Amino acid sequence: MAVKPSSSNPPPPPPPPPAAAKRGLLYRSVPFLLAANLAIGAYVLLRTNKKPSEKGEETGKEVPDAPVVATEPVTPGERTVVAPVPSPTKVLPPIAEQEQRELLKWILEEKRKVKTSNRDEKKKIDEEKSLLKQLIGAKSIPSI
Predict the structure, then answer these.
(1) Nearest to residue 136, comparing CAs of 95, 92, 106?
(2) Which helix (H) or strand (E) holds 125?
(3) Which of 29, 45, 62, 87 places its Cα 20 to 30 Å from the Cα of 143?
(4) What pLDDT, in 10s, does the model give residues 11-56?
């Protein structure tokens, strides 16, 4: 005998509400995330608005005008040439020859570690290595 479905059967029950642990986690984490987001937003907003201008207008202080300096009148026939002032060059003491040799040996070791992908690169590195070997073996190293 087949059982006929009757219209009096109740519908399936609704799914259970989320577990209490999940709900507790959401109740604790959402306010924290909102507060952190507001704090970061306020920091960024205040940081971008407090940029001082070159003249100091935002600080409320007036920048005093430059003192008036009397200058000689320039005649149209004369030209004054203003050359830029060169910055002083710093002279370093020369590197000892033994230190130069150690440096060249280190460079040679690094060149040996390089992995090349094609013949052109390999040829170029081989030429550089041979030059380094010649410099290391020379009696005197040329000054740079």
Answers:
(1) 106
(2) helix 119-137
(3) 87
(4) 888 877 666 667 777 778 888 999 999 999 988 888 876 555 555 5
CA 96 to the chain's CA centroid: 35
> End-to-end distance of the chain based on CA atoms, in angstroms?
107
Yes or no: say if 139 and 118 are a contact pair by the CB < 8 Å rule. Answer: no
In sequence order, the 6+-apart residues with CB closer than 8 A to the CB of 34 are none
DSSP, collapsed to helix, strand or coil, labels residue 114 as coil
Quick one: tokens of 100? 């130069």
Range of the domain at 25: 19-51
Q: Could you tell me the pTM of the whole model?
A: 0.37
Q: b vs e for 29-58, b when ≥16 Cβ sit within 10 Å of the residue's Cβ?
A: eeeeeeeeeeeeeeeeeeeeeeeeeeeeee
How far, CA to CA in Å, does 58 sit from each of 43, 50, 65? 19, 8, 17
Residue 65 lies in a domain: no
The count of structural domains within the chain is 2
Tell me whether residue 129 is in a domain.
yes
